[in-house]
Every structure is written in structure tokens, then in C-alpha cells.
Design brief:
Blueprint lengths: L12 H12 L6 H9 L9 E5 L3 H13 L3 E5 L2 H11 L3 E5 L7 H11 L4 E6 L4 H10 L5 E4 L4 H8 L16
Parallel strand pairs: 1-2, 1-3, 3-4, 4-5
Helix pairs in contact: 1-3, 2-4, 4-5
Length: about 180
């Protein structure tokens, strides 16, 4: 689905999400499946990979489908602990994480992923005002993660993933070759 199909003036985000997910109705790939699939593609031909972590399945799957529709490879996980495990398997170019999740929050997952994969770009998002304290603490520790507010507009998501510019989908500054 291309972004131009999203009605920018309609704020009924959840209705759009439900309709979007119903249109796809297929099982999502696991991290192991994505890792295996990517091994079969020469590194120069691999699309940039975005690891999406959100405990809300509709949000997670919608973001994954939006990214795929825009020419990225994407895989979703339900919490920070799964994100750390998945990142070790797939080596994402971008980690896009909800801040508030069970087991391990997005900030702690981002710190761990950044430690083991320093070229991975980190973008956090949240709809909770209380997350600013976690982001402030992370910045004090030297982690300057990017941030998006929920609900995430598809145009803002893609603009941020592309680094705020017109970065082609097959190039990314943090990309491993």
C-alpha cells in the first residue's frame, strides 16, 4: 500500500489500521524466517531492514506492512526482550520501538541493541507522556535516540526512517554491507 492511499485528513487511525490489517490477513514472518530469507539474498541486493517492537499487534503489523509497501524489509516483535533476541539474528539497519512494553521497555532494548550493533539507528515512539523521563535518562547516559509520537502518521514514519530526506530505499547511512 502506498502512502498516498492514506487519507491525511482522517484522524480515525484505528479504523484505518483495522481495515489495513484485514486486507493482508496473513501470518507474519518470524525473526528466524526473515534471517533465513535474507541469507539467500546477496548483501548488495538486500533492502534495508527495520525491526519493529510494539506490544499492540495491530500497530506493530501495520507499521511492518507500511514499511514493506515503501520498499523496506521489516519484521515485528511484541516486546523489548524479543527485540534484543531478534536483533542478534537479523542485524537490523533501524530499530523502531515503542517505549512502553512488557518484559523489557523499548529504551532498555534500544540500549542493548545499540551496544551489540552500534550502526543500528534507533527510533523510539510512544503515546505516553511519562516516557519523557526514560528518554531523558537515556540521553544523560549518552544515547540520543530519535523519537516519534503516537499515533504515528505513515508519512512521518517514512520521512523519519529515510533520515528526514529523500534517501532511496536501497541506501541507508547505517547499512552493513
Amino acid at each position: 500500500m502506498q502512502l498516498r492511499n492514506w487519507n491525511q485528513t482522517n484522524n480515525d487511525f484505528h479504523s484505518k489500521v483495522l481495515a489495513f490489517c484485514a486486507a493482508f490477513g496473513r501470518r507474519s514472518e518470524t525473526c528466524a524466517e526473515v534471517a533465513e530469507r535474507r541469507k539467500k539474498v546477496p548483501s548488495a541486493e538486500r533492502k534495508p531492514l527495520v525491526l519493529v517492537a510494539d506490544d499492540e499487534v495491530i500497530i506493530r503489523e501495520t507499521i511492518v506492512e507500511i514499511l514493506r509497501g515503501e520498499g523496506y524489509d521489516a519484521v515485528g516483535v511484541k516486546d523489548g526482550a524479543e527485540a534484543v533476541e531478534c536483533a542478534d539474528q537479523v542485524g537490523p539497519d533501524v530499530f523502531l520501538a515503542d517505549v512502553s512494553m512488557p518484559r523489557m521497555n523499548g529504551i532498555d532494548a534500544a540500549k542493548r541493541i545499540k551496544r551489540s550493533l552500534p550502526t543500528t539507528r534507533i527510533i523510539c515512539f510512544s503515546g505516553h507522556a511519562a516516557t519523557s523521563e526514560l528518554l531523558t535518562q537515556a540521553r544523560e547516559e549518552g544515547h540520543n535516540f530519535e523519537f516519534l509520537a503516537k499515533p504515528i502518521r505513515p508519512q512521518a514514519l517514512i520521512h523519519t526512517i529515510r533520515g528526514g530526506g529523500d534517501l532511496p530505499t536501497n541506501e541507508h547511512p547505517g547499512r552493513k554491507q
